[in-house]
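Reminder: ligand-aware prediction takes two inputs, not one.
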Amino acid sequence: MTHVLVTGGAGFVGSHVVDHLVDAGYDVTVVDNLTDQVHDGKPEYLNDDATYVWGDVRDRDLMTDLLTEADVLNHQASAVGVGQSMYEIERYVEVNTLATARLLDILVTEEIDLEKLVVASSMSLYGEGAYYCPDCDAARYPTRRRERDMADGVWEHRCERCEGALEARPTSEEKPLDSTSVYAITKRDQEDLCRAVGRAYDIPTVALRYFNIYGSRQSLDNPYTGVCAIFSSRIKNGNPPLLFEDGAQSRDFVHVSDVARANVAAVEAPIADEAINVGTGNPHTIRDIADALIDEYGASDTVEPEVADDFRAGDIRHCYADTSRAERLLEFTASVSLRDGIEELVGWAETREAEDNFEDAHDELKQRGLIRDS
Ligand code: UD1
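Here is what comes back for the chain with uridine-diphosphate-N-acetylglucosamine:
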């Protein structure tokens, strides 16, 4: 039986990956340090058919023992928080970049032959998504928006040539990378390190560039996490979800069960040295997400989204996946609609306590200049 080691396998994405790998017949070992920013002790959803080791991916001796037993490494463990990464720089580089370097160092030093290495990467590597200028009939890849435009509430990108309005287009893996946060840089490091070592030592390596993942088991107490979990926690506590900018910015929301399926496909596909988008190919605005969540919680009479008079420094405006490479190489297409996915998230969240820590985190980010007034 193929033995898969899943790092971060008690976390939001990792735990769903574990369930899908166990269902597909793999022998799964998890290593996870149950970091207290997202866990309050052992979660109740652990899979009875997987083996759990409570330890840190940075622990060289532990990881040497575990990797020696593994046929496949599925590396999900990461510190995840774009805003937080901008002031806990050393910790993000240590947990994401350095720990990955150490795992690769162990593989090479101990001459461990893996059948496959799958690493969790991120759409954050792209920075802004891809755009098209209808007036110039040309592809455009804008970078950062101007601070003074943001302060004036001018949110959309304009063409660098004709100043006309740009339209968002699917972002393919070929788009030039523009990692704008410490978090994004460390995800790029993880991807680049794994692929470089994979190429040099014939370890078939696949980096999965996740778009915006949502679903059950995402921490409802962590105010630095993704927008669906933050909004869930706000609505559950009777507070309005706060829309940065004007709420018309858009993302590609992919359900965690689809992401887990993509991981099993990546373990099994006979491919090497690839980076592959994992998204749905369909953008949704943040206001749509807030409305859909309020509706699903049945809170329309008590809560409505509030437009904040501020924006997050460095945020991108639109990004959604070109899914053709995933279809071609992994035979993967996301199958959960936004409506079904939100129903699953809310069904789970209703069984949980949720501490709304948003305001403290918002104040902290504001104090540090990472959230700014418009
Ligand atoms: C970022 C990362 C992504 C990472 C994710 C979760 C980038 C480009 N992408 O995505 O890799 O997986 O964080 O950490 O860096 N928003 C609100 N109100 C809120 C919270 C968020 O309006 O209370 C808005 C944001 O301004 C943004 C959108 O919702 O426009 C999505 O935010 P978020 O869920 O944090 O994800 P990204 O920034 O897209």
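Residues 38 and 108 are 32 Å apart (CA to CA). Residues 80-82, 122-124, 181, 184, 212, 225-227, 230, 242-244, 249, 251, 286, 312, 315-316 surround uridine-diphosphate-N-acetylglucosamine (CB under 6 Å). We will return to this case in the review session.
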